[in-house]
User: What shape does this take?
Amino acid sequence: MAALLLGSTLSGWAGAQTVELRILETTDLHTNALGYDYYQDKPTGEAGLEYTASLIKAARDEKRNTLLYDNGDLIQGNPLGDFVARVQPLKAGQLHPMHAAMRVLRYDAGNLGNHEFNYGLPFIQQVVAAAPMPYVSANAYKDDGTGKPGENAFTPYLIQRKVVYDAEGRPYVLNVGVIGFLPPQIVNWDKSHLEGKIVTTDIVEAARKFVPQMKAQGADIVVAIAHSGITADYQPGQENVAAELTKVEGLDVVLSGHSHQAFPGPVYQSIPGADLTKGTINGKPVVMAGFWGSDLGIVDLKLNYDRAAQKWAIADSQASLRPIWDKTAKKSLVTPEPRIAAAVRQAHEGTLAYVRGKVADLTAPITSYWALVQDDPSVQLVSNAQTAYVKAALASTQYKDLPILSAAAPFKAGGRGGVSYYTDIPAGTLAIKNVADLYVYPNTVQAVLVNGAGVQEWLERSAGQFKQIDPSKTEAQALVDDSFPTYNFDVLDGVTYEIDVTQPSRYNSQGEVVNEGARRIKNLQYGGKPIDPAQQFVIATNNYRASGGGSFPGLKGQNIVLQAPDETREALVRFFNEQKTVNPTADGNWKLTPIPGATLLYVSSPNAQKSLPAGATLLRTREDGFAEYTIKF
Assistant: This one.
């Protein structure tokens, strides 16, 4: 049962009472305590809680009554997170570096995201137990032994007694209900860690269950900290339901996250019921504060006390964002808060020593600027390492004679990560930081058994990365669907194929077949011959994909033939150590089917000019820092 901080609902003052309350949100910090890019080993002002902290201080100075919440995906995301989880693990009771920083800022509560579970359930339990603020998560339950929800795995909600003041300085007691939610899909995405231990339920269902309890126990207002994005439609069990939460009776404010987007912002202008000027959806205030500390989310509430009804009511609200970086001028908008750097100094220095460790010699640069339009060395190297690992692991099993393919995706390919979110490793020394740059997630190596028909469907799902191109048009047409996560653009190594983007995508974003007759994958061959739909293949991949992450056809954890204990990055380090000298080249096993007369528009970094492929030309550099290129076949 939730811990309750109950008390008198109102100090005794006559007349009308009006209180202004400011709610602040950070989300998806992904261990970016500092504005430091560990992959490039240099400072940056585009990210980091040390910058957001200055905005927090300014926002508090403006309003006397403030609350500060974090919305999860806090402890994983860059080498600092790996360092304290894997390299030099935290001791029991030791503060996580992110929490050391947050203690300085006096957070009121935190919510759990999906990436909190990447290092295993015991680790996040240890981290939460030592945290300087309470945590809430309402839709994660302990497995009751039959695969059904037992008791809550974490505190589902809190009712926090806050003393607030009106404009004349008169005090009141406000009972603030805080409830947290995480994507139900964590049980698939981290199946190897959570199977038999954690069961999740639908977010909206959990809200409808607990919010009435919170109101009955004295909550004057209810704030949902939802590690969930914003979409137009709602289906039970889906991951992005923040808009639907605004329809739950008794729920007053929604703090959104997970999608690495900004609300209020133009990307959500078509969401039914959204008012981007007020920052509301269906009349209720909503905010999503970007990622990596890029923005501070602010919800300002005007609360009136109805003495007759003996309750507080929200008379007005305004949700807004404050950024730390000017994307046009490419400069910081605030100075960093030095107390944050001091709080994480030891972990930061340890991380730097770790990431600078040599792995091998590199004969040529590795970049990912063109990884979405051609076979790319940054992806090829991951596949080579995965294939070698799985081949050795299955050498004495019944699968030893089956052909091994490998699935790998370009994780760092711009998009929502920004113009600096590309792999760019210079020739010379290949260090741990570069391996982490190639493979940014702490996934483990797994392998699945798939037939030739399944290989085709796997690639069809992956080919949803692209928009459909009209071959009859002569004007430039955008090639990449920016809403499609690049980590779902799997390249299958070991077969050869083409992707015909003049065809519609066979699958939608949910992995459902929506164009039955569509086939983008052409000339799919194994060993120089058309692939046999019945032939069995072992595909090296990761725990996320093998367990159903990305909603790929036929991948729900039932056909796993290898569940390795090693992280993919460990497999990469081992592979590079054995190579001693790494020559980053791609084997060109896939390509886009040529479209004579068509011009494709591709967005990448201005640095992509260093390695223009045939037919590519720089068109312009945009105000947001990205560059547009045209590609002609």
Notes: The first strand starts at residue 17 and ends at 26.
